[in-house]
Amino acid sequence: MRNGALSSMARIRSDLCVIFAAFAASCVLGILTNSLRRAPLPIVYESPEGRMLRSVSSGSQTIFREPEILKFQAALQAWKDSAALFVDARESAFFEEGHIPRAINLPREEILRAKTIGELEDKSRPLIVYCSEEDCEDGRLVAKGLLAMGHAHVALYAGGWDEWSATGSPVEK
Amino acid sequence: MVGHGLTCRKMIPRLLISLVFLVAGALKLRDPLAFADGIAAFQIFPGWSINPLAMGVPYFEIFTGAGILFGRTRSAAALAACGLSACFVVLYATALARGLDVTCACFGKWTLLQASTRVGFVRALVLLGISVCALRGRWLHPERMSPERSRSDLGGRRL
């Protein structure tokens, strides 16, 4: 019985030592390989919003504005009248599964690609950004980023893809 | 391995947990930024700890997954798997309690395996259950093991 308890204690101690050593080795290896990456992570974390706004800002003079929020009826009317270009802020995999017809895909991580997209050359053209649903942060971030990049009229369709597709509005796949 | 008396009942949880941690670690290594965002979404960790965790945890998961496959490190790796799974359960439970919508990048950006908070919590519970199965017999009941195997697990040291 006593031997069993000693064996258990030794095993626990031995296992904890192995775990500690593996964790220390993981941290060292992680920091080393991170420094070899093309785009290494900084030591202190920066939020997606911070990263995106930093990438689109053209210096300390950049002013970040909040986009106007559109309800479903206003977004549908704008789509029917072709009054604005719809910008889908979801990841490309979701965009390919289905999106608002004539929309372009611009995920948050690819916001800088906006400078090379032909449809976005005219900065006075009204844009309506949408994401998957109301709680999706990426839609607001992309809209803010586009405003910071000089687009004059950027609105956010808050209901997003979930509301659009649930109401039976036209979709494109 | 079958010759050493390991039954399928013992092998399956080990292989499963090993596969899960190896795949999860490898996918996180491909996109540490997404994993860092996933950690931050739980709103528990201080900013200075998020990126170091995102750099180190994927390797720790790979070590854990690989360690379960080898006799000498199996019990430590199974214990580490239990610890990691328990951490995931606690993280998801606190996220659920606070009403957070966390889309965890537990498997990198592999959208097939991205899950809502509730699904992530259930997945973490299942992972914890399998990890405990992998640990059982190796660590909880060492007296049931033969002295030879017990010595080999402790690196050949005599007790």
On the 0-100 scale, what is the average pLDDT of chain A?
Answer: 89
Distance between the termini of chain B: 26 Å
- What portion of residues of chain B belong to β-strands? under 5%
Percent strand of chain A equals 5-15%
Major sheet characteristics of chain A: 5 strands, parallel
Q: What best-fitting shape of chain B do the alpha-carbon axes yield?
A: globular
- The overall pLDDT average of chain B reads 80
- Spell out the helices and strands of chain A N to C: HHEHEHEEHEH
Write the element-wise H/E pattern of chain B from the N-terminal end onward.
HHHHEHH
Explain this structure.
The complex is a heterodimer of chains A (173) and B (159). Chain A is of the alpha/beta class and 173 residues long. In chain A, 45% of the residues lie in helices and 10% in strands. Chain A is built from 6 helices and 5 strands. With 159 residues, chain B is mainly α. Helix content of chain B is 65%, strand content 3%. The interface between A and B is large, with 34 and 40 residues.
Secondary-structure blueprint:
The complex is a heterodimer of chains A (173) and B (159).
Chain A lengths: L1 H35 L11 H9 L11 E3 L1 H9 L4 E4 L3 H6 L6 E2 L21 E4 L6 H12 L5 E4 L2 H7 L7
Parallel strand pairs in A: 1-5, 2-3, 2-4, 4-5
Helix pairs in contact in A: 2-5
Chain B lengths: L7 H23 L1 H10 L5 H21 L6 H24 L8 E4 L7 H19 L11 H7 L6
Helix pairs in contact in B: 1-3, 1-5, 2-3, 3-4, 4-5
